[in-house]
Each structure stands twice: as C-alpha cells, then as structure tokens.
Design a protein that fits this description.
It contains 18 helices and six strands. By secondary structure, the chain is of the alpha+beta class.
Length: about 450
C-alpha cells in the first residue's frame, strides 16, 4: 500500500493539466454549439416524436419547443467558462451533468466519444485544472499552484489507456481481421475528393484494419517511452486527422491529440504554451488527510472502467449480434449492421391483428435501430403497449420476418416470432431469450 501511496500522492508539475483544460473547454464549447448549427440537435432531439432513452432513464426527455437549443447553448457557455477557468468546478460539473443528460436521453446517435466525454467530464470536475492561467486565479491569487498530485494525471491517462486497449482487443475478431467492416465503411466514401477511389482498394482496407489494431494497442506505451514519444505523436496526428476527415467523428480526434500533452515533459509544455510559468522540479510525496478515501476511490473508478467494457464477455452469444453489453464497452465502429422487421399487434380481447408501419412513427435515424437493436425494439414495443392501454386495449406484439445482416453477410433470423414481446421483462444483466442464436 505504501508504494501505491507514493505513486498516487507524488507531487508533479501541473502544466499539462492546465493546457489540457484550455483545449478541453474549447472542444466541449465547439461540441455544444456545433450540435446546434449542424442540425444535430434538431434531427436527434427536436424532430422525433419520442427518443429512445437508456432503459431506466425514461423520465429523461428532451425539453419541449426550442428548449434543447437553449440547453445546448447553455452547455456551450459552460464549456467557454471551463476554457477560461471561471468558477471552474461549478462550470465543469454543470457541463458534465448536462452532457450526461443528453447521453442517457437518446440512443439514435451513438459514438464512443459521447461516452468518453461524459466520463472525462466528471473526471475533470475532480482535478484542479484551474490553478494556473485562469480567471479563478486572477480573482483569488491564493488558488495559484504549479504542482498537482500524480493521481490527477493518471485519472485521465488511465481512462484513455483503457479506451485504447479495449479498442484494440475488440478489433481482434475474424471479420475485422479480414477487413470486412472497413470495406463496408468505405462504400459510402466513394464520392470523397481525391481519396474516394483509393478508399475502395482492398489493400487499403487491410492496411487500415491492422494499423487500427496496432495503433490502439501501442499508442500509449509508445508515448510513455521517451525514445518513441515523438514518432508516436506524429503517428497520432496522422491517425486522428485521417479519422476526422474520413469518418467525421466530431471532437474525438482532437481530444485524443490534446490527451498527448500528459506524456511530454513539463519543460516542453512550458516552453510552448506557458512561457512565464515556474516549473515544479521536486517530487515529494504529500499524503492528504483523506488519502485513504482518495486511494480507494481511484481504484474503484478504474475497476468500474475495466468491468463495464468487459461485461459482454460474460453474456451469452456474440455481442455484435445481440448488442447486449455493447454500449459503454468501446465497441464502436467494429461492424456494420442492417435489418428488417414487421411488428404484428394482436388485440387479446378480439383476436384481431394488424401489421403496423413503424417507419411513420419514428425518425429516419431511429428506423434502423427498430430492426437491429434489441433494447430499442423492446422499448418500442412497450411504447406501443402503453398507447393501446390508454385506449383500454390489451395487446400482444410479435416481431415477424425479423432478420439482420452483420458486416454485409446473409440475412439471418433474429427474433423469435412466437414470443409476445409486450409481455417480456428487460434484464440488463442477462441474455434475452427471445433473441435467436447467432449463426
């Protein structure tokens, strides 16, 4: 335990955290206002009749009217305040809570960086990122500091290491090794200027597939090892800019590049960004009064971050087929998936049945989820059940001709057509028996 204390509570220079805060604040500001001006808020939260929230968060619904525009504008304000370091912890906490609300409110738009941004935002609340180059210090010079605890750095570095590591591990499966998902992704990039035709070449698909595994697995060790640090950073720049151009994944590439700050020595960061800052060069260990609580809190945090993305290994069948344990597990962009389904409603009192046109009831982006994602299918069925209950009717709902295709392969039966989905319960920790086995 002494060695853990020495590691966690060693004092280090805080230059990397200060600069990271500025970049982080800028990026969350751009993420918030960009969601408004690109139409993301309108498409995802304003236009749909209802959103598919995370199960258990049904109470979390978009604000009516133009409410979500104001919501995101306010998040942008908090992002700006984080960047300049004004009322830092309150601003960061407000953004973290509001972004978590957006994340759990809907599932039509899902990216790894949405989840990463939520977790990282709460981590940023805990670290003293406003102790230099901030309005808070201008208003209260006593806050000024040139050092921090080592655990402040490793909360962020550890989180990103887990993200990259699981990203590499989850790619090691047959379809990825045969470059099938990448080939599918690139079909929609034919129109890209200059590179569209190149992206259709099979050798490019294989190169990107294997380089993706290698990059995710080695980027953190390569950044930690000083002789390979610069070349690793140059590779990171190329990798993330390429992803930004080809896949358009928002702020994630730039957030990942900002994360590289924590691997360079304080002298380098000071000379580039904080020329007037005094360097901290000692490395004493100072135990705070609540060091035991902090230590166990840090260990618990990392245990959760490791267990959550690993949970799908303990659930029956393949996660790429069932989606069970898929979210919060760094499984993003590992496969393509398409499906077909018909929803049959049976009035239990009269025995009359009909097929509903669910496409008229949801947005275009939500339509695909209603044939491929079991949790969304179950939620939609429960929504139908409540609608009919309001009319005094008790119904059964069956999924007919339900088939899905993973990575462009043959369509295979997905949901048991003989099970009334309106009567089954959702268990987030167990396999849903109404799903047919993966082929």
């Amino acid at each position: 335990m002494k060695s853990i204390n020495n590691f966690l509570f060693k004092q280090i220079d805080n230059s990397a955290l200060i600069v990271f805060r500025v970049f982080f604040g800028l990026l969350i500001f751009l993420e918030s206002v960009g969601a408004i001006f690109t139409g993301w808020v309108k498409r995802t939260l304003v236009d749909p009749e209802f959103t598919f929230s995370f199960i258990g968060f049904e109470w979390l619904q978009p604000l009516p009217g133009n409410g979500m525009y104001y919501y995101f504008a306010l998040m942008g304000v908090f992002g700006f305040l984080v960047m300049i370091g004004y009322k830092y912890r309150w601003s960061m906490l407000a953004f973290a809570l509001m972004w978590a609300g957006v994340y759990f409110m809907q599932k039509a738009s899902y990216n790894n960086h949405y989840y990463l941004l939520m977790v990282l935002s709460f981590v940023m609340v805990l670290v003293p990122a406003n102790r230099y180059l901030s309005v808070d210090v201008k208003m209260n010079p006593k806050l000024k500091a040139i050092k921090m605890y080592n655990w402040h750095k490793w909360l962020i570095v550890g989180l990103m290491t887990i993200t990259y590591t699981f990203g590499a591990i989850n790619k090691v499966y047959p379809d990825w090794l045969h470059a099938i998902p990448v080939q599918q992704f690139m079909l929609g990039k034919k129109h890209y200027f200059l590179i569209g035709d190149i992206l259709q070449q099979r050798w490019v698909h294989y190169a990107l597939s294997y380089l993706g595994i290698i990059f995710d697995a080695l980027i953190v060790p390569a950044l930690l090892y000083k002789p390979t640090r610069r070349i690793a950073f140059y590779c990171a720049i190329f990798f993330h800019i390429f992803n930004s151009i080809v896949f358009q994944v928002g702020i994630f590439p730039f957030l990942s590049l900002a994360f590289c700050l924590f691997f360079f020595d304080a002298v380098t960061i000071r000379n580039i960004f904080l020329k007037k800052k005094t360097l901290y060069t000692s490395s004493e260990v100072i135990l705070p009064k609540n060091h035991t609580l902090i230590k166990w809190g840090v260990l618990t945090f990392f245990a959760i971050q490791i267990l959550l993305p690993a949970r799908h290994w303990f659930i029956q069948d393949d996660v790429l087929w069932t989606e069970e344990g898929h979210r919060l597990s760094w499984c993003m962009m590992l496969r393509t998936k398409s499906g077909m389904i018909n929803y049959k409603i049976v009035d239990k009192a009269t025995g009359k049945s009909k097929i509903i046109d669910y496409r008229k009831m949801v947005s275009l982006k939500q339509t695909g989820m209603l044939s491929t994602k079991p949790d969304v299918i179950w939620q939609f069925v429960q929504h139908l059940k409540k609608q009919y209950q309001a009319e005094g009717k008790d119904i059964a709902v069956y999924a007919l001709h339900s088939k899905i295709s993973v990575n462009g392969k043959k369509y295979e039966p997905f949901i048991n057509p003989e099970i009334d989905l309106a009567s089954v319960q959702w268990d987030p920790f167990r396999h849903s028996q109404w799903l047919l086995p993966s082929p």
